[in-house]
Write a structure and sequence with these properties.
Elements (H helix, E strand, L loop, with lengths): L11 E4 L5 H12 L3 E6 L3 H14 L4 E5 L8 H12 L4 E4 L14 H28 L3 E5 L12 H21 L4 E7 L11 H9 L9 H14 L7 E4 L8
Parallel strand pairs: 1-2, 1-4, 2-3, 4-5, 5-6, 6-7
Helix pairs in contact: 1-7, 3-4, 4-5
Length: about 250
């Protein structure tokens, strides 16, 4: 019996914040399954170019890089136009780019608000709006990277938690607005990567002890969940899957 081609071959996806960490893992996973990609980055040009070379060594002319500041929403028409030019179609938008840092209430500023709301909520909304016509033509999908703290606020991170709560509602709202042509889902990571600013070992141990699996997850756990939602979950929309090792079971 002849095996049918992988369903992602010939399709094209746009991943924001794709140069490193979870974004890069998503890119590697989708690319390995046959999808050509447009990889967005803001300032990580060296990492983005290295990822492009790595993936194109496996399949030439399969990657396009686009640099953009997602706070500048007026540039989204051009960003999507450049994305469309790569393969004359768009099948997937992954809203992964995100800012994350503490903003204790007494110290939070309007600049913090604009940055965290901008990257985690405003940009995904308006980028999805601009991408929607292309996604509709291909019966494509949108995947947002949400956070378990959209439901349970993270201490000293009120603005980030508020932004991710809005992002979670964005998943559900867009699923209503864009169906039946476009499916929209989200992934809420738990303890996948430690924050880049670092935590001491005692704090890490306390966090891991609050998960049911008592261990750190990996970016590949997120990427494999995303692959399922894109490739295998044709009747799932408006849902957010927690990939958290059971962290949200903790009372």
């Amino acid at each position: 019996m002849t095996q049918s081609p992988a369903p992602l071959i010939g399709k094209c996806g746009l991943i924001t914040g794709a140069a490193h960490r979870i974004g890069a893992a998503i890119a590697r996973t989708l690319h390995a399954d046959g999808m050509d990609l447009v990889l967005h980055y803001r300032s990580s040009s060296t990492a983005a170019e290295a990822l492009r070379r790595e993936l194109e060594a496996q399949r030439p002319d399969s990657i396009k890089l686009i640099q953009a500041d997602l706070h500048e929403t007026t540039g989204f028409d051009q960003l999507i136009a450049e994305t469309s030019a790569h393969r004359e179609r768009l099948d997937l938008l992954v809203n992964n780019a995100s800012s994350f840092y503490p903003t204790p209430l007494a110290e939070a500023t309007e600049t913090d608000w604009d940055d965290l709301i901008g990257s985690n909520l405003k940009a995904p909304f308006f980028l999805s709006k601009v991408a929607a016509p292309l996604l509709s033509k291909s019966s494509g999908c949108i995947i947002n990277l949400v956070d378990i703290h959209a439901e349970r606020p993270l201490k000293d991170h009120p603005i980030y938690s508020i932004a991710k709560a809005g992002n979670a509602m964005l998943v559900k709202s867009l699923a209503r607005e864009l169906g039946p042509e476009v499916r929209v889902n989200g992934i809420a990571p738990g303890v996948i990567l430690w924050p880049e600013q670092g935590l001491d070992e005692d704090t890490k141990g306390q966090i891991l002890n609050r998960t049911a699996l008592k261990r750190l997850g990996s970016p590949e756990d997120i990427a494999q969940t995303l692959l399922f939602l894109v490739r295998d979950a044709g009747y799932i929309t408006g849902q957010i899957i927690a990939v958290d090792g059971g962290r949200t079971l903790q009372q």
